[in-house]
Design brief:
CATH architecture of the largest domain: 3-Layer(aba) Sandwich
Strand content: 15-25%
Distance between the termini: 103 Å
Number of domains: 4
Radius of gyration: 37 Å
Strand order of the largest sheet: 2-1-5-4-3
Largest sheet: 5 strands, antiparallel
CATH topology of the largest domain: Rossmann fold
């Protein structure tokens, strides 16, 4: 047998190559004549190669087989073209038409890659779903990596560790808990932790901020009301938070803001575990564990007559005093690390910080406590494009915080108060000059005349 007769059919070979490609392929010449299509093209469009091979793309368009052709524009411009095409069966596909040039540089063929829009949309959705899974996985990793996390509280200090140990004991009882501490220390976080560690953890947890409810609505919000109890009331009546929290926990935040009349009614509800809705005479029983919180000194409030003593004693069963952040500085770096990881994950960033930032954070007094740090770090990550934050990215007030007073030699018995204050003033002024670089800017920051800054800088030999 002639060895040349064993060679494969070139045309069949080309068809086989086209059919193994995952994209639909449509090949036409410079005049728009259809030369070949592959099997995937037939599947995507519903058009068979026998129906279209040898026909002009413009004729096929005019016959309604599809609405868009790219061959003429590719031949005219010699450039790639992209468009969306709708076939006669209503299928939508994306066309990417590419020119193939001959030796003279003219367009000889147009090869069009055809892809299904529906498939691309599904792939896009799959990618979005995978990204969501990745984000959730990263959040879980953060929670697992944070060794200083216990429940929902991030800490490294002895003070909070002792507080958590006490909380664990109290949570297992049904005792009323009073959380004390400054604004932003995390009283709401500790209240949820108490509920989660209690026997009621599968029951509802409700929080009511006593400072945000108008005085004329507090009673109806807590105790509920009957139909027609007052103008504008729901025609079916409404249960109050005490009923809604039945078998669960009710957290009364900022309880020191309650009016005296409501304090009296709340006391009876605490003692008797029963309420009467506004506009009703029917007594309703409930079973609720109470947690209250305030940033006020309730003992002083009792002395001044702004808080009922009997309610205070009823609340003061298990008291948890949450120290401010400035009194547990071991927690600052732990919280800093946690919030940076939290918001880097949320906003898909990778922002880090220098040791100077750590030092500034530890020196700062954080008057707004953990809440201030949470919001501040979120703001840093959202508003800064830098990958590494340094001290210059922090606001001026963080460089001149009064905590520097603690770093002076306050135990030095050889210095008077005036000398200590002078030392602090000199240090503060030097920091300001180093940061702003000019007397005018320092004067503007401290809101004093330039002559005042000049005089003090000269006094402390800070001018070159």
């Amino acid at each position: 047998m002639d060895k040349f007769s064993q060679r494969p059919d070139v045309g069949k070979l080309h068809e086989g190559i086209l059919d193994v490609l995952s994209d639909g392929i449509y090949v036409s010449d410079a005049k728009g004549k259809t030369l070949a299509v592959n099997h995937m093209y037939e599947q995507l469009t519903g058009l068979k190669k026998e129906e279209i091979t040898g026909k002009l793309v413009t004729d096929l368009r005019n016959q309604g087989n599809f609405d868009v052709v790219l061959n003429p524009e590719v031949v005219k411009t010699g450039q790639k073209q992209t468009s969306v095409q709708v076939t006669k069966e209503g299928r939508r596909v994306i066309l990417n038409a590419c020119p193939v040039f001959d030796e003279s540089g003219k367009v000889a063929l147009v090869v069009t890659f055809v892809r299904d829009i529906t498939l691309l949309t599904q792939l896009k959705d799959q990618i979005a779903n995978q990204q969501e899974i990745i984000d959730k996985f990263r959040e879980v990793q953060i929670r697992n990596k944070t060794k200083m996390q216990k429940g929902t509280v991030i800490f490294a200090s002895k003070e909070i560790n002792e507080l958590i140990n006490l909380l664990e004991k109290v949570a297992k009882t049904d005792a009323t808990v009073l959380l004390l501490g400054e604004t932003g220390v995390g009283k709401d976080v500790f209240s949820k932790l108490i509920h989660e560690r209690s026997l009621r953890h599968n029951e509802p947890f409700f929080k009511v901020d006593c400072s945000t409810i108008p005085e004329n609505l507090i009673e109806s919000e807590l105790f509920g009301y009957e139909a027609g109890a007052f103008s504008g009331a729901n025609t079916k009546g409404k249960p109050g938070l005490l009923e809604m929290a039945d078998k669960g926990t009710l957290f009364l935040d900022e309880i020191g803001e309650l009016p005296l009349l409501m304090q009296s009614k709340l006391l009876r509800a605490l003692q008797d575990q029963e309420i009467i809705r506004v506009g009703s005479t029917k007594v309703r029983k409930f079973n609720v564990r109470f947690i209250a919180a305030t940033n006020r000194n309730l003992e002083e409030e009792v002395k001044s007559g702004r808080f009922r003593s009997d309610l205070f004693y009823r609340l003061r069963v298990a008291v948890l005093q949450i120290p401010p952040l400035r009194e547990r500085r071991e927690d600052i770096l732990a919280l800093t690390s946690y919030f940076f990881e939290k918001y880097n994950t949320k906003y898909r960033k990778d922002v880090t910080y220098t040791q100077e930032v750590c030092k500034a954070f530890q020196n700062y007094r954080w008057p707004g406590n953990v809440r201030e740090m949470d919001n501040f770090i979120q703001s840093l990550i959202v508003t800064r494009d830098k990958e590494v934050l340094n001290a210059s990215d922090l606001p001026p007030y963080m460089h001149f915080d009064a905590i520097e007073m603690d770093r002076l030699s306050l135990n030095n018995e050889t210095k008077s108060l005036d000398e200590l204050m002078a030392d602090y003033e000199k240090k503060l002024l030097k920091q300001a000059l180093d940061t702003y670089g000019s007397i005018a800017k320092v004067a503007k920051f401290f809101r004093v005349d330039r002559t005042t800054i000049f005089r003090k800088a000269k006094k402390y030999s800070l001018l070159e």
